[in-house]
């Protein structure tokens, strides 16, 4: 096993890692479509319900759902994957 073999192994491992990251980003973007639609409908429905019934407590679920939405946005279109990769290599 020479250095050429080791270089090819490292190159193949890097390519596999890049493919896995690309699949993770693609999955996040697909999930974001569905969760974004749910989040929008839920936000509108909860807001309308809170205004009609004069119960501001109905707006409470929007906060945790907003955090989940922000996380998914970061995962799909932000730098979350690259920040995580940076933490693994440091």
Automatic annotation (TrEMBL):
TM region positions: 31-51, 57-82
Keyword Transmembrane on entry: yes
Keywords: Membrane, Transmembrane, Transmembrane helix
Pfam families: DUF2368
GO cellular component: plasma membrane
InterPro entries noted in UniProt: Plg-R(KT)
GO terms, biological process: positive regulation of plasminogen activation
Cited PANTHER family: PLASMINOGEN RECEPTOR (KT)
The protein, known as: Plasminogen receptor with a C-terminal lysine
Organism encoding this protein: Seriola lalandi dorsalis
Gene: PLGRKT
């Amino acid at each position: 096993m020479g250095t050429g073999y080791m270089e090819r192994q490292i190159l193949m491992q890097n390519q596999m890692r890049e493919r896995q990251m690309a699949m993770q980003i693609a999955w996040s973007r697909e999930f974001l479509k569905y969760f974004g639609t749910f989040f929008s409908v839920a936000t509108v429905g909860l807001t309308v319900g809170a205004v009609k019934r004069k119960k501001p407590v109905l707006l409470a679920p929007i906060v945790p759902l907003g955090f989940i939405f922000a996380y998914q946005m970061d995962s799909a279109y932000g730098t979350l994957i690259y920040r995580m990769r940076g933490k693994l290599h440091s």
